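Review this:
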Amino acid sequence: MFELQSLWDVIVLIALVIAVAPFFGAYLGRVYMDRPAFGDVILLRIETVIYRLLGTSPRRSMRAKEYLFALLIVNLGVFAFLYVFFVFQSVLPLDATGAPNMSWTLAFHSAASFTTNTDFTHFTNESQMSLGSLMIAWPLALFCSAATGLSVAAAMFRGFTRKDGTLGNFYVDMVRTTTRILLPLSVLFAVVLVLMGVPETLTNVVVAHPLTGGTQELIFGPVASYTSMSLLGTNGGGFYSANAASPLANPSAVSNLFEVFVMMLIPFSTPFAFAAVVRKRNEAWPYMGTILIVFAVALGLFIAYQAATNPSLIDVSSLGAQTNGYPVGQETRFSLPEASLFQVVSVYSNVGANNMMIGALSPVAQLVLLFGMFTQSTPGGEGTGFATLLLFAVLGIFVGGLMVGRTPEYLGKKISTGQVRWSALALLIHPASILIPFVIAVTGGFVTVDSGGIASSAHTFTAVLYEFTSESANNGSALSSNYINDATPFFNLAGAAVMLVGRFVPIAAMLMVGGKFAEQDVLPPGPGTLRTASATFTIYITLFLVIVSVLLFLPVIALGPLAQIVGGG
C-alpha cells in the first residue's frame, strides 16, 4: 500500500546515511592509511600476531601484479573450501534437516557465487543447505568476499598518493578490514537485529502449532548474525529462500529500515574514504552527487511506477485505488515507499537481498533495477562499486581532456593509454559477460521463449537478461525461477563463469590502473588542470556514466524490458 507519510521514513533514513557517511568514510581512510584509529590499543596487538602467522608485515608493500596474485590465491582457497564442503555437506557436521550433497555443477556455481560476493543461488536454502553450510562455509565467504572488495578499493586509492609503484599489502588489508570494520559492525548489527525480533540460535528445527491446527516445522539458526553480515558485506544471500521478505529475517517496518541503513553504510561512505586517503575532502562530494542523482531518480521512478495503475488489474472491480498498482509480491507489513527503498538500495548497492518479488514488479521498475546493475557504481558493491565509478571518471576525464585540448590528469597524475585500456576493459567485460551467455541461452534452446505475444516473450527475455546481469554485476538478486529453469547444468556452469569473469577481470583492471598511477610523481596543478571538486564535474560524470551505460546495453534492453513495456506486459 502507498502511504504518503511513509515517504518521510525514506527521506529521514537517506538523510541519516548522508550525515553519517563522511565520518565513517574518514574512519575507513584512517584504517587503510594505517593512521591512528579507534581500537588501536587492542587491535594492533591482535593484528601483529595474525601477521606473524601469515608470514607478512605491514611494512612490506606489493606492486599491482603481486597484490593481484595474493588476492587470487586467497580467493581460490575460499572457492575450493566451499566447493568441497557443498559436495560433501550431508556427511559433514550440522545437517539436522538431512540436506543432500550438491551436484558438482551446483556446488561449482554456489562456490563461485559466494566467493565473488554475488550469493546468487540455484537452490532452496531450507531443503538443500545444511546448517553446517550456513554456519561454517557460507559465512567464511561473506567475510572474505567483502574484505576482498574493500581491499581492492583501498589499494587503488593508494595509487593516487604513491610514486614507488606499490599499492599496499593484500594480507594486511584483509586483516584490517575484518578486524576493524566487518567483524565489529556485524556483531553490533546482529545484536540490534536480535532486539528487533530476528532469531539467533543453534537450534535448527522448531515445531510450531499454527492456529489452523496441525504442526509446522520452522527452520531456525543464527539468522541475526547471518543477516547482519550478508547485508553489511553487500552479499545479500538470505538465510531463508524468501530472503528479507521472510518475517523471521525481517519482522517489521522498523527492522526493514534498519536493514536498509546497514546496506547503505559502507557503499555510501566509500567516496569519503577515498577523499581521506588522497587527503582532499572535497573530492568526495562530486562522486557522492553522481551517486545521489542516479539513486534518487531510480527510487522515484520505481515508486511511481509501482503505484501506477496496473493494466492487468484495471477491470477488477474489487480493487480500490490503493491496491490497483503492482501489489503482487509485496509484503503487507511494509509500505510501498519503504519496501521500494529496500529493493532499490539492495540492487544499486549490489547487495542482492529481496523483500519483494522482482518478477511481479512493473516493467519500468524491473528496468530501473537492471540499470543499477548496468552501472555497478551508484553506489555499487563493497569497495569495487566506487572503484568502478573511478574507472568511469578516468575515462571521462581522458575524453574530456581530448575534447578541450588539455593533457588528461587527475589528482596530479597523468592519465595515459595504459590506464584507459584497463578502464575500458573493466567496463566492456561487463556487457560481454552478459550478452554472450544470453545469446547462447536463447538461441541454443536452453530457454523456452513464450510465443504468446510480445509481452510474454519479452518477459522471458527479461528474466534471462536479469539472471546474467545480476551474476555479472556480482549482485545476486533474481527476477524469478518461475520464468526460466536455471537449476540446470548449463545455467550452473554459465552462471559460474559469468560471476568469476565479472568479479576478477574488473578487479585486475582496478589494481593495474592504481599501479600505473602509483608509478608517477604527483604534478603540481597548472592552468590547464581540470577542477574535479565542482558541481560541473558532477554533472559531467553523471551524464558520461548514464550515456555509456545506456549505449552498452541498449540492444538487449530493447529485446526485454522495453519490448515488455511496449507490449503492455
